Amino acid sequence: MTKKLLAILVVALLAISLVPATGQEDKPKIGFLPGVVDPFYQVMELGVNQAVADFDLEVITQYPPSWNVSEQTPIPDAYVARGDLDYIITAPVDKDQMIAPLQAAVDAGIKVITVDTFLGDGDYIDGPVTFPLSYIGSDNVEGGRIAGRALADVLGGEGTVYVQNTNVGVSTTEQRGEGFIEAISEFPGMELVGMDYNLDDANRAAEQTSATLQRVPDLGGIFGVNVFSAQGAGNAVIAAGLGGTVQVVAFDATQFAIEMLRNGDVTLVIAQKPFDMGYMAVEFAMADWRGVTSLPRRVPTGYAVITAENVDDPEVARFIYQVP
Amino acid sequence: MVAETTQERQPMLSVRGIVKRFGGLTAVNKVDLDVYPGEVVGLVGDNGAGKSTLIKCVSGVHQADEGEIFFGGARVHIAHPSAAREMGIETIYQDLALAGNLHVGANIFLGREVKKEYLGGVVKVLDETHMLTESEKVLDSLDIHIPSLTQEINNLSGGQRQAVAIARALYWDARLMIMDEPTNNLGVVEQRKVLSLIRTLRDRQVPVILISHSIHDVFAVSDRIVVLRRGRKVTEKVASETNSEEVVQYIVGARDDTREEIPAN
Amino acid sequence: MAVDSQREAALQPVAPKRLTGMQQFVLTVSRVWGWVFLFLLIVFFSITGTGFLSLRNSQNILVAIVPVLLLGLGQTFIIIAGGIDLSVNYVMGLASVVMALVIRDLVANGVDETLAILVGMALGIVAALIPGLLNGLIVAKLRVTPFIVTLGMAFVARGVGYLLSDGNVVGGQPPGVRLFGNEALLYYIPGDGGGLYFLQRPEAAGEQLRVLERIFPWPVVVLAIVVGFGIFLLSKTQFGRHTYAIGGNREAASRAGILVDRHTILLFVMSGFTAGLAGVLHTARFNGGSAIAGEAQLMPSIAAVIIGGVSMFGGVGTIWGTIIGALIMAVLQTGLVMLGVESFWQWIVVGIVVIVAVLIDQGRDLIKGRAEAQLSE
């Protein structure tokens, strides 16, 4: 009985080890490792899956349960241990602490492409980290600038603005705030009245925004660096009877952000392009596999600005993070 | 109070073959004990003899592993202290079991708070005034004076705490009173007061189980004396037929009736 | 003889308040410092900040304390009984998500809007009662320490919240949800053509809309009712008395016939209820459910309880104290933002206030303890 089982097991193992051996010749196998479960990465996964289907490849996707180095690290380790992957497409949750686990993958012969976030300083030519093939993602400082310019545009280049930020030390949101402030300073008629941190809590964002509206009754606009910041800011603005008077800019085009846009809680939504990031990363992997050597090491994917006017335009609506 | 006089001498409490183990330790080993209306039973023994464990099985704090308990002639299962109190078994514990953060009145009525009802009983509010007045009455009847009954127990002296614990047990008409070292923290005058109180209870046909380290106190009020040693009952004597030296010999193990197989009582 | 006379002395009226002037002073301070500090803060910000002492701002502060105070309310009961509940923030998120999902799906399936909202709110709260019940059962019946049980439950509630919401904010709420979360009991428009309006929001636009005051928004009304009931329960009823007794001496409470296990379970269910209510009000106010709706509220809610004078060792504290604690934090937050001071200062001040609060409480206990020690000598 046990002998029979053993025999079956051996045959099965042989079969498994033979299949990738033949497949490996012409098609790369890809591991996708996002940062955390959220609509942004879910849309990125759609892009990955679309490209994988277009090129007839195989992909393995594994989400870390939370945005945390210790949650993300075991996954590349497991990808290496599988032994059948050729590329890892990943959004490292920390630019320093994720270097070692991904270096280990490279040492095992797997090539790494980073999407959305980067390792080191993101400069893979002259920076401290050069092993990833490319960094495909939006420039958050640029995103902040776009938000700042869009808000200045709505306000006619004059007025006071306020920033609702999340946490100190989170690079993406800090950079958005930084870019926003930089863009505002380009307009002589615009003035920044403050920036508060809400710890990613809509209630606190509303509390701080209400207080700011008391302090600055003629506030022109607010930049909420993520969905909860914009949610709280928008709520405070509506409660103060200032809906439509104080302009609120939200970052990231989640469906809820679009709902807020339609309700009038926010005026503008800055959309990143996660689908592009996912799709292009797979394309890059395929190109590298085919021997292309001049792939750009940095690809900024850009932004779309969504307003109540253009939200129904299919050209713009496709940037909404929609997971069917 | 219910007087059980149907039979000549039917015990109020009858404990049969009680065994209580804690892990590998047998704290109480097959103990029988009868307590009759109108008598005081002194329960003595060295530290760790099983006295407190035995009475905690009766007062519902512990559940015996083996054996039976009869109360007022009926077999009972005492699953919880509240069950014991409902039957009329009141206990004064060695550690007093008072909530230090609550005031005197709250402790006397702890677990049996008096409530005022409003809206036909839908809303029930603590009746502090009633509880404080009643507390004062019972403390007065014991000649105990505590300046303010709204004082936290934490602010009282050891003797005052003891007095509160005794007052609490006395307030509720008991059918059986268990007292675990009731004179521990008391001055001489108060000790005498407690002993006379025990006699009063006996005269009212309320049986008392008295646990005490003071052989003197035990002899002063007990009708019968039961000695425990290492979880077993080693003897049971009518108080007038023994003396303190003999009892001490049982306590320290120099004598042991079970070796000679003398039937209890 | 000497021993006897000392014993006699011990039984004399305690004369417990034979304290030095300094001790008496500290005892008084321990009772009133919260009110005084809050008052001073309000005076300070009224002088320094524009519009701090205004109807609008008072309402903003009341709205802001809703989640902190609801979480702190359940927590006050539990900490007085000697426990702690670290799961309240994610239980709040779970309730928020469940309510939003139920309403969204019911409305999408053609169910009447009002009915959908009521069912959604009810199920949101039920979803919060379940972890509360489990917390209570595990603490009471399996004798696991509340710190561990509720920490574990926090992770579970968070995970379930994420799974249900897929990591998204759950939107798609009908307008009624938002009305409940943002409209008010009273409205006031100052100036000509204005006035006081009860229940019915006046038509207003432009400048009138800007000056329209919402007095007692519905979440604040709900908060007031629940907190009022909590105060009654804790200070006037047998349930409250038993809560203190369990925190003061668990064993004594049990021997006095209090069903300690059942009481403990009830307390955790109550904490689940207040957390669930906080989640439901979050969804209503912000028009969407989020698994991390309460994430940042745990520490402030515990801080409010501690500032309010509840002892972490159990047995001591009041809900009024927790209200003061929550108000102190909200006033600081609002006041500092109004001053344009970086909001990090708030953490520093709150941190210092928490530590000072505990020191004051310890001073109080020490003095009481000293009075006791003097007696037992």
The CATH homology group name of the largest domain in chain A: Response regulator
CATH structural architecture of the largest domain in chain A: 3-Layer(aba) Sandwich
- Series of secondary-structure elements of chain A, N-terminal to C-terminal: HEHEHHEHEEHEHEHEHEHEHEEH
Strand share of the residues of chain A? 15-25%
What is the count of distinct domains of chain A?
2
Termini separation of chain B (Å)? 27 Å
The CATH architecture of the domain at 40-50 and 89-260 in chain B would be 3-Layer(aba) Sandwich
Q: What is the general shape of chain A?
A: elongated
Main sheet makeup of chain A: 6 strands, parallel
| Derived structural class of chain B | alpha/beta
CATH class of the domain at 40-50 and 89-260 in chain B: Alpha Beta
CATH fold title of the largest domain in chain A: Rossmann fold
Fraction of residues in H or I helices of chain B: 25-40%
Structural class of chain A: alpha/beta
Give start-end ranges of low-pLDDT stretches of chain A: 17-24
N-to-C SSE string of chain B, H for helix and E for strand = EEEHEEHEHEEHHEHEHEEH
The CATH C-level class name of the largest domain in chain A: Alpha Beta
Task: Outline the fold blueprint.
The complex is a heterotrimer of chains A (324), B (265) and C (377).
Chain A: H1 2-23, E1 29-33, H2 39-55, E2 58-61, H3 69-72, H4 74-82, E3 87-90, H5 99-107, E4 111-115, E5 135-137, H6 140-154, E6 159-165, H7 171-185, E7 190-197, H8 202-215, E8 221-224, H9 227-239, E9 247-251, H10 255-263, E10 268-271, H11 274-289, E11 298-300, E12 304-307, H12 314-317
Parallel strand pairs in A: 1-2, 1-3, 3-4, 4-5, 5-11, 6-7, 6-8, 8-9, 9-10
Antiparallel strand pairs in A: 10-12
Helix pairs in contact in A: 2-11, 4-5, 6-7, 8-9
Chain B: E1 13-22, E2 25-35, E3 40-45, H1 51-58, E4 66-71, E5 74-76, H2 81-87, E6 89-92, H3 104-108, E7 115-118, E8 123-126, H4 128-141, H5 158-171, E9 176-180, H6 188-203, E10 208-211, H7 215-221, E11 224-229, E12 232-238, H8 244-252
Parallel strand pairs in B: 3-10, 3-11, 6-9, 9-10
Antiparallel strand pairs in B: 1-2, 1-4, 4-5, 7-8, 11-12
Chain C: H1 2-11, H2 21-48, H3 55-80, H4 88-108, H5 113-141, H6 146-165, H7 175-182, E1 184-189, E2 195-198, H8 206-211, E3 213-217, H9 218-236, H10 238-248, H11 250-255, H12 260-286, H13 298-307, H14 319-339, H15 344-376
Antiparallel strand pairs in C: 1-2, 1-3
Helix pairs in contact in C: 2-14, 2-15, 3-9, 3-10, 3-12, 3-13, 3-14, 4-5, 4-6, 4-12, 5-6, 5-12, 7-12, 9-10, 13-14, 13-15, 14-15
